[in-house]
Amino acid sequence: MSEENKEKGEGKEDPGKGLTEEQKLEIKKKKQAEEEEDDDAIELNPINAKLKKSRIVTFYDPPGPLLSDKVTEKENAENNLVRRWRVEIYNAEVQNLSGDTINPFIQFIIGGDYRIEFKKTTSGGSAKEEKGEIGKVFKSNVIKNLNDKESGAYTTHIITEFRATYYEIMRNRLHFEIWTWNTWGLNRFLGIKSLSLLDVVNGSINREVFLSKPVGKRMDGVANLSLKVKFEEIWDFSITMLDWHADDLKRHDANQSRDTVDSFCRVTLTSGTKDYSSTHSITVKNDFSPNWTKFESGLRFRGTYNQLLSQKAYIRFYRANLIGSTKFGEKMVNLRSFLLTNILKTEVLIHKNQLCALRGIIRTPKQPRYLQRDFADDVLVDEFYLVVHLQKLDVFSSLEDKGDFGIFATVEWGGILIKSKVVRDTLINETFHFNIPMTSDTKDDENKLTDFLSNDLKTKSSVRFNIWVDYGDHNYDNVGTAYAGLYNLYTAEADEKTFKDSNQRKKVRFMTRTYNGKANLKSAFHDITNCYIHFGMWFQPEIPNPGVDLSKLYDPKEDFVPYELREKLESDDGFFVDWHLKIEENFESEELKNDREFMNPYFQDQYQKKHLPMKYISEITSPDILALDYLDHTNIDTRERQILTIPEIAHFVRLIPFRGTEESYHVWSSPEFFMKLRKGSVVDHALLMASLFQGTIFDDHEDLDAYLKILADPNKKKRRAELAKFRAEYQKTPNENRVFVCLGRLNQENGGRKHAWVITINRNFDEVTFWDPIKPVKYKLEGRINYLETEWLKNYLSPQLTVKEKKKFRQKLKKLQKQKQKEEEEKKKKEDEAKKRAETKQKDSKHLGEHKNLTMVNELLLKAREYQNRRLESQDFSSFEEDKLSESSISLGNIKVSLQDLRQDLRGKFVHLIGNPEGQDAKNRKLLGNTYKKEEVKKGANKDEEKKVEKNAFLEKEKKRLAKNDKKKKERHLFKQNEFIKANREVIIPKEEDIPYERIDLIFNAKNMWANFQNPHPNFIFYNLHRERQWRPFIYDTDFSKSKKPKKAKKENSGSGSEDEESEEELLSKNGDTKADEDPGDDDAGDDEYSHCKGKNDKGTIEIFKEMGNYMRMFSPFYELESLNKLYTPEEVKKKHDDICVTIEMGLRNVRSARNRNTKIKKDRITIKRFERYLDILEDESAGRYSKEDIHKLKRQSLVDLRKRIPLQYIIEIQPSMFNYFDSERIKAALLERCGEFMTANHAKCQWSICCRIYNYQGGVVSVRVLIAKFYKKTLTKDEPGSEESSEEL
Fold first, then answer.
1. Who contacts 129 (Cβ-Cβ below 8 Å, separation ≥6)?
2. Distances in whole angstroms, Cα of residue 1150 to Cα of each of 206, 1156, 1272
3. What is the 3-state secondary structure (H, E, C) of 648-661?
4. Hey, which residues does 399 pair with through a beta bridge?
5. Which of 47, 278, 331, 900 is a Cys-bridge partner for 268, taking CB atoms 3.0 to 4.6 Å apart?
6. What confidence score (pLDDT) does residue 1033 get?
7. Residue 542: strand, helix, or coil
8. Torsion angle (degrees, nearest 10) of CA 888, 892, 895, 899
């Protein structure tokens, strides 16, 4: 320190003559203490004396270690590549903890490996050696006169670019130094905190840093620093879109509707003021519900991941014209919510006043290696927000005391979900900002802004709150859910609000309507009657008032359904009525309908709302599949264990813990809610399994190997062509049309309780597979689909309509609608005429006499004869529709004779019995009693034993035949199919013990649900879903079904077999077509809708099933989808692994020491590696990654390799186990209970080995496999030479 600076410093310390001697002495002591601290800083860092004042540095931590010592040559080259990093440091606030008033400023040093190493000298002292270089240095502004315990905010906003390799990121650090500014002297160093750059780029943006100064071995706190640090790699992102589907593009305005529409979708990446890139989809012709399977190219963006998430996507719908195109729909969305889930699900405003549901896949397949965990929530003055302020959570009274736990809330609006902090009391006081995306020209024009908000807020009219309990280690439980409608703001009073702009760091004041209230939580799992959430909400800034009418923003009571089906779902005589009528007709006995799942087609969700089962299933694609095209597949045998194929997905879902209560079966959790809890009922597992099945394109590893082989092709042009061919082949029969959830019941041996499982149909549509969500088994059912009808089923479930067929079907549907409208008009006209005649005759009846009865009867007979003649012409009494007859009635004057009052055996059979008084009610019997001759009756001694003398033989025969047919119809669904025939004419004989299920009631996917109208046992029925008499669909075209009933066809044999083989008609009778056995008089046989079908290649038949399948529409889910991301880092997994191994070792030692037995643990690295390989094989076996033959070979080879490490006279015994949780104490307890005898056995020269393997899957799902092995010397008998010893294999 120079003399000049000392003089200035002394002058500053002596304020004047007014101080007493004691005060001067105290100031002097304080000055001496400060000088000693300065000397300590220089002592630690001699380089301080050599640097300028702006470059002062202090103590540094040493560079961090590399993550792995062994890397491949390719990984090494990637890690050594210099990369660009964008560093942004802002919103820094400091709290003074030094005990004095200071003028603090912060010095940030980014990167560098500078440090001081202390080395011992030969004389016994220590020498300091400076190494490395200092990184980039930045300073904040100074906060003057900050008192103890006070906080102050810095206005400094640092934005810079840092260049470093991955190796440098692993080793370098970010330093925070706090200094106090001195006006006349040197700035004084107060404290420091150093963070590894690897922790920064992998950690949170929001940082809390505790600054302290090292004094010996003690750390004295100086200040708390809170700030935001964005440290992200600059990346070239490619955003791809796949399988975008719009539900309904038809204009509902009948005056301006069109028969066809050729549409395409354009997506533009924009920041609101600047467009970055744009792409458009293929044009789909003649389709009101287009599926845009691919886009011209991906969207390109260069920047950081946070910058990408802050961008917006402008979605526009266009109608392709002969010249140019016309825009008819648009929507702007925030990319953040969709890129985090890889799922696009929104509603687009079309035709100015109509909403259309849009869904699809949007992804960034290739991302930087390091991503910060949370994302910046900057609030800007030129943006519009909905602000939600959480005040209080009154939920603790309903929670059970399960130890230390905290609660947090998730707030969801417009597809964006924000998580609050974790608290341990009722007060939370946290504010969330939900951005409303719009273009800059919309913000500047008030009329455009009003129109935009009026339409946009219709799609997101309420806020949803979810309250969660955090028990630690990613273990959560849901407390309940509450909703708050935006309509509450309509009558709210205006209040003044303030916010701080993130860029300008200024406070902004504004007036806005503010709603403060509370909402009652609801839960299907807990009793939370008195649990509330207190909140407030407002718009920032205020939206146009009275321009935007918030009073109309009410949540719809019903789910969003496809427009084509809306009328029949809501009408009184639509799908629901017909569904129940058909069930009543098919199951007349109450026992057959009792407790069947198809009786009530609505099921309750976790929010106590009821939905159709189709609303619970949605396509969920694993991130492993999304990133598959961008990985290195030069060696396809070294791929990681992922969830790609259907067997791997089934294994993944089975790893999730169960909540197995009977009550939980009736409450269905949506897949996204289920993955948050990571526990659920068997139905929850089945729903998630089916949703993930729909999201994969690989049925098994043969498909995956073929796909990876294409990816490994170095010829880029050929690779693209082969990939396009592979995906085009998959689109013909996508999994969404071949995967179903099944509801039924287990047999008594397996508990006899209600159960759910997943059914898949292979791509050839000739094989059915059951996937159990609990047990690691699957059941293949062959021959359950009539091999002669596989094309029919394929075109019914996966209709691939050509443009010509779409146009033809539309014209046919339009014709049917006109015909239906004409019939309704004629019916109404006839009803009006009949009503007028009845009114006229009623007036005339006043002047009629007693002869009126005879006139009425004569007219009645005339009408009855006409009815009978029409029926006799058909020569088919069984096809006479009784429901029409029962509804018929004849009104003559004031006397009404209803045919439904006639006796059942006399209706429509003989004309001369129509007026039989015994067939009438009391009033009509009195009127008709004298008109007809009474039946001659033989009267016996007892009147109760009177018998009719006249008996008609034909009538008796008809009665017996009709009774036989009625019984056959009623019991048809009870008959079991005792054999099934495959395409190669092999006969399959089913057995009850083949599968653990005894009843199947209902199956469904995202398009439809089908009720089982056959035998309830799932192993003795067919799965011809296209046959309505076997599987009754809930969604079907009633108009088309009536029009497509053909006339009776001649029985033809279109089979291709030889003469000595069975005829096709006989095979049909054995494979689900019962017409060969049916009586011609059977009602259903006469109306068989398939009687004209001649064979599987019949073009007309295939067109019929195509149209039937095309009528079904995809139901959009009622929940917001989320992606499955890994929750556990490699460091966390390694820590858990070590903890499990140590805990098991301690348990083994304790249980053996209790019996006075030694325990010697062998920790040979090569042996452990071979044990790990064996556990890998077991995991691959559970996930179906190899065939049974390959698994057997791999197991044997693994044991042979292991045997090579063991002496010949030793035996090895192994005990593998699997767990789906991390808790080491639970694992130890389970092993001691399961393997107690194995662990306590006494052997000579026994050694032990413990191996653990953790498989970290998506969504926090883990598979923990543990292997305990013991090696001991076998006791030789007199007849056994030691050289012939062999190991005992498990």
1. 116, 117, 118, 119
2. 45, 10, 20
3. HHHHHHHCCCECCC
4. none
5. 278
6. 93
7. coil
8. -20
Single-letter code of the amino acid located at 939: K
> CB under 8 Å to 565, separation ≥6 — which residues?
575, 1035, 1113
Distances, alpha carbon 929 to alpha carbons 241, 916, 925, in Å:
80, 8, 6
54 alpha carbon, distance to own chain's centre = 55
Structure-token pair, residue 210: 């505790």
- Residues recorded for the chain: 1290
Q: Rounded to whole angstroms, how far apart are CA atoms 642 and 20? A: 78
Under a CB-based contact definition with an 8 Å cutoff, are residues 57 and 109 in contact?
yes
Q: How far is the first Cα of the chain from the last one, in angstroms, to the nearest whole number?
A: 78
Tokens coding 1218: 């699997």
CB 1082 within 8 A of CB 1048: no
Q: List helix spans (H) across 899-952.
A: 922-928
Closest CA to 338 of 247, 438, 240: 240
Characterise 767 by phi-psi region: left (phi > 0), alpha (psi -120 to 50), beta (else). Answer: beta
Categorize the per-residue pLDDT at 373 as very low, low, confident or very high, splitting at 50, 70 and 90: confident
Q: Quote the Cα angle for 3-142-133, to 5°.
A: 75
Short-list 635, 647, 623, 783, CA closest to 702: 647
pLDDT at 480 over 90: no
Give bridge partners of residue 435 from the DSSP assignment. 385
Over 452-484, what HEC string results?
Answer: HHHHHHHHCCEEEEEEEEECCCCCEEEEEEEEE
User: pLDDT value at position 83?
Assistant: 94
Q: What's the token pair of residue 1107?
A: 């149209």
Mean pLDDT of 938-956: 53
Cα separation, 196 vs 209, whole angstroms: 13
Burial class for 1175, CB neighbours closer than 10 Å (0-12, 13-18, 19+) = buried
Q: Give the C-alpha separation, 773 to 770, whole Å.
A: 10
What is the pTM (predicted TM-score) of this model?
A: 0.76
Per-residue pLDDT tens digits for 21-68: 666 666 665 555 544 443 333 333 333 333 333 333 445 666 767 766
Span of 157-161, 294-298, 398-402, 1093-1097 with lowest mean pLDDT: 1093-1097
Q: What are 1199-1214's pLDDT values in tens digits? A: 888 888 788 888 888 9
**How far apart are alpha carbons 1021 and 977 in whole angstroms?**
6
Using only the alpha carbons of the chain, give its radius of gyration. Answer: 40
Q: Which neighbouring-strand residues pair with 299? A: 239
Confidence grade of residue 832 (pLDDT, cut at 50, 70, 90): confident
Tokens of 475: 């273990």
Give the H/E segment covering residue 956: helix 953-971
- Residue keyed to tokens 């002495």: 25
- For residue range 1186-1197, what is the model confidence (pLDDT) as tens digits? 888 889 999 889
The predicted pLDDT at position 1277 comes to 52
pLDDT reading at 1218 higher than 60 = yes
Residue 631 has pLDDT above 70, yes or no: no
CB-based contact 148:132 (threshold 8 Å): no
Secondary structure (3-state) at 236: strand
**How much is the average pLDDT of 243-257?**
71
Distance CA 704, CA 642 (A): 12
Taking the C-alpha atoms of residue 212 and residue 192, their distance in angstroms, rounded to an integer, is: 6
Longest Cα–Cα distance of the chain, Å, equals: 147
Alpha-carbon distance values, 58 to 47, 92, 512, 514, 1080 (Å): 8, 21, 50, 51, 101
What is the average per-residue pLDDT within 619-626?
A: 81
Residue 197: both structure tokens together: 């750059």
> Can you give the pLDDT at residue 639?
42
Q: How many other CB atoms are there within 10 angstroms of residue 1048's CB atom?
A: 13
Greater model confidence, 1108 or 877: 1108
Answer whether 961's CB lies under 8 Å from 905's CB.
no
